[in-house]
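STRUCTURE:
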């Protein structure tokens, strides 16, 4: 089956939910400790005990609800806010002097957790609604607003709205990033498909056209139709709708050498010997020089490098002529593998590669440079008219790890 890139999405707000979970547990414990230390100040301690018991049980029982946006539903938020407001309004019943002194309410700073849940779930508008209700409850609990009360209310109101706004911006950025990663993955897949079409279908159509013209008669008509389809397909490939196989034609030997497109293999696939894949490309007019020892590379990377070498040899056959010779040099370094393909043909005229890309002939751009780019390597082409062409392929040792992924 074909290899496909997978876009892994990560929720930027998930850490906020985890932080909120911890905040609710810690502040519930803090509210209980405050009540324990101030137990002698309560005229009706049983009310304080009942309120804090309900708050503690509710906090522990609803931890799953504040673990993510999916579970934090509107009904839960409504009940959670009602618990906070009830705790605030019952404070004067437990402590008659609570309206005289600016002491903490029974829920204390746990109330901010209920407001923050609104902010993370629904953004700044939801945060403004919840914090306004909390502000009104605090003012009612005090009887008349003091400077400290207004200060605390304003602080919660501004902080919750700011966090809600940040969450909305983060969600929009996450959607934009996910879309960009999907577009990038789709573009890379289209380039792979375009390489495959170039390496196989287009070459077959071109061969049918040439052989048909040479044979004449009905074969000539078949060749003409194949040529029309080649032009149409090249136009389609140039537009970006295209997939890679690996094929190279060595006309000097009168045979077609193909590196078979193998099915996907799981990550962590064993390394392969690049020499074993390049050996079939050598022949009477193609010389292979290797280190004399295995050249290990991740198997997917080795197949892609071999396919790029095959594409380079195919260009030698098509553009340098049947009498041209080619040399393949493999160099095995500590951090990279370098493969050089050189020929003694007439070279490439200046500007010819740009013209070929404009005509939809993407052999160098996709089959060679595109493959090495996907591997995190590079492909450099040097050509001097009358002195042949040299293609240098560089692939890092960790090339196989980059295929089939998208980073954050």
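SEQUENCE:
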């Amino acid at each position: 089956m074909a290899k496909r890139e997978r876009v892994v999405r990560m929720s930027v707000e998930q850490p906020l939910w985890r932080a909120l979970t911890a905040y609710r547990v810690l502040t519930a414990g803090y509210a209980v400790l405050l009540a324990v230390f101030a137990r002698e100040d309560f005229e009706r301690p049983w009310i304080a005990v009942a309120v804090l018991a309900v708050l503690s049980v509710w906090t522990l029982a609803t931890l799953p609800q504040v673990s993510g946006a999916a579970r934090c539903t509107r009904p839960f938020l409504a009940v959670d806010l009602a618990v906070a407001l009830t705790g605030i309004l019952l404070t004067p019943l437990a402590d008659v002097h609570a309206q005289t002194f600016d002491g903490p309410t029974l829920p204390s700073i746990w109330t901010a957790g209920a407001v923050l849940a609104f902010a993370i779930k629904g953004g700044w508008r939801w945060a403004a609604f919840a914090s306004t209700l909390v502000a009104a409850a605090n003012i009612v609990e005090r009887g008349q607003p003091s400077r400290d009360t207004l200060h605390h209310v304003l602080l919660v109101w501004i902080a919750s709205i700011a966090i809600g706004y940040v969450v909305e911006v983060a969600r929009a950025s996450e959607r934009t990033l996910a879309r960009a990663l999907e577009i990038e993955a789709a573009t890379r897949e289209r380039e792979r498909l375009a390489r495959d079409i170039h390496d196989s279908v287009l070459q077959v159509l071109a061969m049918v056209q040439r052989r048909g013209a040479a044979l004449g008669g009905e074969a000539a008509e078949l060749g003409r139709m194949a040529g029309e389809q080649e032009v149409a397909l090249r136009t389609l490939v140039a537009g970006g709708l295209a997939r890679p196989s690996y094929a190279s034609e060595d006309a000097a030997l009168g045979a077609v050498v193909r590196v078979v497109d193998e099915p996907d293999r799981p990550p962590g696939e064993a390394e392969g010997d690049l020499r074993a894949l390049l050996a079939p490309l050598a022949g009477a007019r193609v010389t292979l020089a290797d280190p004399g020892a295995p050249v290990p590379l991740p198997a997917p990377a080795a197949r892609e490098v071999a396919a790029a070498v095959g594409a380079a040899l195919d260009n030698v056959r098509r553009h340098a002529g049947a009498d041209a010779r080619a040399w393949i040099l493999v160099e095995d370094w500590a951090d990279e593998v370098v493969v050089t393909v050189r020929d003694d043909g007439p070279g490439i005229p200046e500007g010819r590669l740009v013209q070929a890309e404009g005509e939809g002939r993407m052999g160098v751009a996709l089959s060679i440079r595109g493959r090495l780019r996907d591997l995190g390597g590079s492909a450099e082409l040097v050509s001097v008219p009358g002195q042949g062409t040299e293609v240098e392929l560089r692939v890092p040792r960790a090339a196989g790890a980059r295929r089939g992924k998208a980073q954050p």
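REMARK: The chain has two domains: 14-173, 266-402.
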